[in-house]
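Hey, quick one: can you model this chain's 3D structure?
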Amino acid sequence: MRRLLAIAALGAVVVTAAVAATPPTTTTAETLTVGVNLPSEGFQVGVVRGSDVLLAQGLEIDMARILAFRLGLKKTVFVQSRFDRLFSAGAKPWDLAIAEITITPSRRLTTDFSVPYLKVDEAVLLSRSVAGTTPRTIAGIRGLRICALAKSTGADIVTGRIKPTRPALLIGNVPTLLLDLQTGKCDAVVYDSPVLATLKARAPLRYGTLLGVIATGEQYGIALPKGSTLRPAVNKALTTMVEDGTIARLQRKWLTTGLDKLPVLR
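Sure thing. Here's the predicted structure for all 266 residues.
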């Protein structure tokens, strides 16, 4: 689901695509300002200082730049933010936010979403400190100390479906979440399957077994402030990117393939 192609190949995707005749109005003229939440392996990683993103790469970074081009905008600027603020109510210093944000009814109350660009499930990754027989069911992991990103759909799965016998730890950011998994503070992490699979593939010795996926059928969407006039243009460009294979090419470039071969935990 979720290597590197040559930069020229990415450029070819861009220059052959249709570009909007008239660029839409944005926060800063001729610029698409994008709220992000680095790091997320395969999707958006880089160097951040405060809210300033000094360097960024990944599937969603490429996607944002291609989207800006197709909207007829000349520049893309990224702004680092806390994850839950990307889809909270109120004015934002960006035009839209991209950060593996699952479209949910509750989030629709505070933000407008684009059409979906990726369908994913949750996954369970163990710490190397977990000894004994590897659990293969949801019931089998209930006794573990399970961690998830606070205010995420993974956290909802932990509390609503897994229902661990020990209090779950809901961590405020992804770096701390993964560090706690590496150090054994967490026995297992529940998080987006493409991220955990890519992370395990790139740093196999840091983590334990990738147990499998919990089928949720979530869909990622771009979050826009409520009432944003940019939404129709974003939907048109994003739909084209899905239909012409651009998103699929970015998946092959940045993410681990073969998620369909992972067992489904029940």
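One thing worth noting: The chain is about 30% helix and 25% strand.
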